[in-house]
Each structure stands twice: as structure tokens, then as C-alpha cells.
Write a structure and sequence with these properties.
348 residues; Rossmann fold; Dihydrodipicolinate Reductase, domain 2
Length: 348
């Protein structure tokens, strides 16, 4: 089967990662890079790919079979809609947009036109997450009671040399916590209400650096998430899972997600299943079973999924409407922290 031509819009860190994944792929070819900067043009030249100053130039000069939108959040809606109107399926980096209204507009166009969009919550493509979702769905844990998530890591000083990362919207809630929100929705169930506290006391920037979040799921389970990008800690998915190679491997196995049920509990990313083989009691011994899973690069898996979606072979794993619901729940965290109130999450 001929390779699918995929264009990348945006040559920032995540855009470059997507382009490099395409270059390594057996199922796709890089049809071009869109970025108005000299650095973006140089990056395209290093890859031997066509360069375009804007996405309209790409549509005119090398209309791709699919496109990846990896630009600032506020630009996602107009860029994605231009590709969709041209009949080009898109992968939109998370979050789908900067507002729920923009995400809903993209979802509405997909529904009316039949041209698909998927949202770049890459963890859904990790075999570890696929296995966890299947276990919960099959009832292996029994009724889910509570979930604890640690998302604590340290962003270096130079990370904040870029001004928008010090401003509202540039902090770990919208950039990092959104991954945890999507994981909870995908594996554990829909979110009904949100409570949250946030703080910027460590760095003193306009944006938060730490947050504590409590979710009540529609199924009744409670989820507690501890988040900080100023913690000297290995307890985060990116550092523990090994799915992103430029982060160092940890000297010991570190779990960051703890899913507890009435019949068994599961740790992630190392898939340890804890259960009683006899009577369930804190006086009885509990056993640990190490579950096996075949590792795979979620970004490669996501790209291959995009190609199958573009060919009409399967439906999006996370559609525009689904990605908008993750954004809605994440923005509810911001609102709950701002108002010190419990915020209900409307199901879109």
C-alpha cells in the first residue's frame, strides 16, 4: 500500500517530534512542514521536506492526505477547519482548542461533513493504557472505588524563558494535567464534578505551579490528582513510563497511577495487579501479579491510527467531540480552583 502523505503544521517541539515520527514511518511520508520562522524553514530543509510559510500555502502547493496541527492552541480552530473544508483529515494536538466553543465548532463540522479529526492525546495509544482500560471494562477490579495519580516533576528555569509559559494558560493544568484528565475519562469513566486548589507560591509567576484535584466520576469513584511542575520528583507518567526517550530512565520501578477496586487494584505504568486469592480482609495476605504487555511507541501507534482513519478503515479513537469533553473537564479544574467551588462537568 502506498504511503500516505502527511503534512505537519507547526515546527515547535511537538511538531518536530511528529515530523520525525513520520520520517521513520513505513506507512506515511512527510509532505511538508508549515512554520513561518527561519528555524522552521531550516528544520524542513534538514529533513529534505518542502517548507511552507502558512497552511494555506501547503493546501495550494502540496495538498496532503492528512495533516497534523501542532500550533498554539488559539489557532487550532481556524487551521483545522481549513483542512477539514478541503477534505483533509487532521490530527489536532491537545488540547483540541483553547475554548470549549472552538472545540465544539470543530466537532460540529466533522459531524456534518464526515471528514474526521482526531485529537493528540497520545497516551490512549500506549499498550499499557489499552490493557488497563480493558481490565477495568472487563470488571477485573470489581467496582472502582478510588484512584490516586501523582503528576509531579521539575521543569528547569530555562523552560520559562518563553513568556507565555509564565502567563495564564501556560501552566501545568492545561499543559500537563489534561493528559491525566483524558486518561481518567478513557480508563475509569466520565467525570461528574471537580474540586481543586492551585498555587503559584513557589515560582511566583502569574500561572500556577502546583494543584490538588478531586474528581467524582459518574460511576461514583473518587479520583485524587497531585500535580506540580516544581517538584524534585520521579512520580510522573512521562518519567516513569519510558514512552518518551529523551527523559532519563529511572533507577528503580516507579508507579504513578493507582486504581483501586472492590475486588482488585492496579498500578501503572507497571501493571501490577493486587488481589486476594481467598477471603478479602486486611488481615489476609494479598497477592501481586505482574501483568505482561508488549511495549510500543504511542506516537508511532497514533500516526498509524491517523493513516487508517484517513483511509476510512477505522473511526477516531479520540474524536473532536471526545477531545472537547476532555478540554471541558480540564477547564472545570481551572474554574474550581478559581472559585473554590465544586464545578459540575456537563456531558457534551
Amino acid at each position: 500500500m502506498a504511503k500516505l502523505n502527511v503534512g505537519v503544521v507547526g515546527a515547535g517541539a511537538i511538531g518536530r517530534a511528529h515530523a520525525e515520527t513520520i520520517m521513520r514511518s513505513d506507512v506515511s511520508a512527510l509532505s511538508g512542514v508549515v512554520d513561518p520562522t527561519d528555524a522552521g524553514r531550516d528544520f524542513a530543509a534538514r529533513l529534505g521536506a518542502p517548507w511552507f510559510p502558512d497552511h494555506q500555502a501547503m493546501l495550494r502547493g502540496a495538498k496532503p492526505d492528512a495533516a497534523i496541527v501542532a500550533t498554539p492552541n488559539a489557532t487550532h480552530r481556524p487551521i483545522a477547519l481549513d483542512f477539514l473544508r478541503a477534505g483533509v483529515p487532521v490530527l489536532i494536538e491537545k488540547p483540541i482548542a483553547s475554548t470549549v466553543e472552538d472545540g465544539a465548532a470543530i466537532a460540529a463540522f466533522c459531524a456534518s461533513s464526515g471528514v474526521p479529526a482526531i485529537v493528540g492525546h497520545h497516551r490512549r495509544h500506549n499498550p499499557i493504557i489499552r490493557r488497563a482500560r480493558a481490565l477495568v471494562a472487563a470488571g477485573a477490579l470489581g467496582r472502582l472505588t478510588n484512584v490516586s495519580i501523582l503528576a509531579t516533576f521539575y521543569k528547569p528555569r530555562e523552560y520559562f524563558d518563553i513568556e507565555w509559559r509564565r502567563r495564564e494558560g501556560g501552566g501545568p493544568v492545561l499543559i500537563n494535567l489534561i493528559h491525566e484528565i483524558d486518561l481518567v475519562r478513557h480508563v475509569c469513566g466520565e467525570i461528574a464534578t471537580v474540586q481543586a486548589l492551585s498555587s503559584n507560591d513557589v515560582r511566583g509567576f502569574e500561572v500556577e505551579d502546583t494543584a490538588a484535584v478531586l474528581l467524582r466520576l459518574v460511576n461514583g469513584a473518587l479520583v485524587a490528582i497531585s500535580l506540580s511542575d516544581t517538584a524534585a520528583s520521579p512520580w510522573s507518567w512521562d518519567l516513569a513510563s519510558g514512552e518518551i526517550p529523551h527523559y532519563p530512565s529511572q533507577p528503580v520501578r516507579v508507579n504513578t497511577h493507582f486504581l483501586c477496586g472492590a475486588d482488585a487494584s492496579l498500578t501503572l505504568p507497571f501493571l501490577e495487579l493486587w488481589s486476594y486469592k481467598g477471603a478479602k480482609s486486611w488481615y489476609a495476605p494479598i497477592t501481586r501479579e505482574q501483568l505482561a504487555v508488549e511495549r510500543a511507541d504511542p506516537y508511532t501507534e497514533q500516526l498509524e491510527h491517523l493513516c487508517r482513519v484517513a483511509r476510512g478503515e477505522e473511526a477516531p479513537l479520540i474524536s473532536a467531540a471526545d477531545g472537547t469533553q476532555t478540554l471541558r473537564a480540564t477547564l472545570a479544574v481551572k474554574e474550581a480552583a478559581r472559585t473554590a467551588r465544586t464545578v459540575a462537568v456537563e456531558l457534551g
